[in-house]
Amino acid sequence: MLHAVVPEDASRPKLEEGVVAASVYAGGTRLADIGIDGAGEWAKRPGHVVWIGLLEPSTELLARVQREFGLHDLAIEDAAQPHQRPKLEQYGDCVFIVARTAHMLDGRISFGETHIFIGRGYIVSVRHGASTSYAPVRQRAESCPAVLSHGEDYILYALLDFIVDNYLPVLEMVNAEVEAVEDTVLGCELSQVQVQRLYMLRRDLLRLRNAASALVDVCRRVQRVEVRPIEMSMQPLFRDVTDHIHRVQDEIDALREVLAFAFEASMMAGQIQQTHISRRLAAWAAILAVPTAVAGIYGMNFEVMPELKWQYGYMVVLGAVATICGTLYYRLRKSGWL
User: Average pLDDT in the 205-212 region?
Assistant: First the structure.
């Protein structure tokens, strides 16, 4: 499986395989980088937040995380297996969120997943597949202790906002390709390769729209979670994420319409070209029908035929055939059939 992964902050100590970052914060300030073992004790301390980032962790690593934070078996089972639909589930005092990520890879929209566990004093993100590193999210959050002091609620917002914002570069790349196709579609018929490309882009955009649409429901449900209610001051931020998703949906719909127009325009151009060729063939067939008919008539083996033994019959017949063919050619060319 190909992954588009950006290296994490190299200044931090090397962590075990599958762990991208693990830190504990208090009052918006990072106190220390910690290991998985003992993270649960840090999370239980008042005013402390543990933020752990995992990348395609092993089953054993997820089991250790489960023991530290008391996560539900079903949530761990989902986190261990990618290809989950975007959703929000509540397991006791823990909220489990699945979000789809998107990244442009080798000219195709490659999809990944981020699974998020959030509870009192901790947030754990699990990345699968193609995605961008969340190191910039952590760096921006750490540079603003005032907002990071809101704890796991702000971190959840920052992660979801980063996921949605990363849809936009993908749409920009698709839009650039669509504009290039749109500029050429009216000039000539698209090749089979180009038509297949249009179909793949439309299919990928539909998958991206489905992923974005599901996040709208996730953001709305985050604001209404009863077990772990979001701070009132944080709720406008999640509404802002919802607005960004609606913007993404609008751009996707616009791109899909342009792709549909390009495909239809290509089909119409092909039909026009085929019609033009058919008309030219029909015009030449009409012209050739005249000498063919005359030759067929005089080729019959009758002994008594009009003007058969006339001295000038051959020249008159050829002249008549040439005149009729020339007249047909002139009229057909004037009408645009030739």
Answer: 86
Tell me which H or E stretch contains 291.
helix 235-298
Structure tokens at 187: 């000039």
Beta bridge partners of 168: none
Q: How far is CA 74 from its chain centroid?
A: 29
Neighbours of 49 (CB within 10 A): 27
Which DSSP state fits 151? T
Q: From 173, 164, 175, select the one nearest 254 (Cα to Cα).
A: 175
CA angle, corner 114, sides to 108 and 214, nearest 5? 80
Domains and CATH numbers, the chain: 19-269 (3.30.460.20), 276-334 (1.20.58)
Residue 9: DSSP 8-state: -
What's the length of the chain? 338
Q: How confident is the model at residue 158 (pLDDT cuts 50, 70, 90)?
A: very high
CA distances to 7, 96, 286, 321 from 291, rounded to whole Å, are 79, 83, 10, 6
Task: Name the pTM for this structure.
Answer: 0.73
pLDDT above 80 (res 171): yes
Higher pLDDT, 283 or 76: 76
Beta carbons within 10 angstroms of residue 70's beta carbon:
12
Residue closest to 102 by CA, chosen among 91, 116, 112, 92: 112
Q: How far apart are CA 259 and CA 279, in angstroms?
A: 30
Residue 189 has pLDDT above 60, yes or no: yes
Integer Cα distance of 208 and 171 in angstroms:
10
Cβ neighbors of 248 (< 8 A, separation 6 or more) are 164, 167, 168, 171, 208, 212
Nearest to 100 by CA among 118, 73, 127, 75: 127
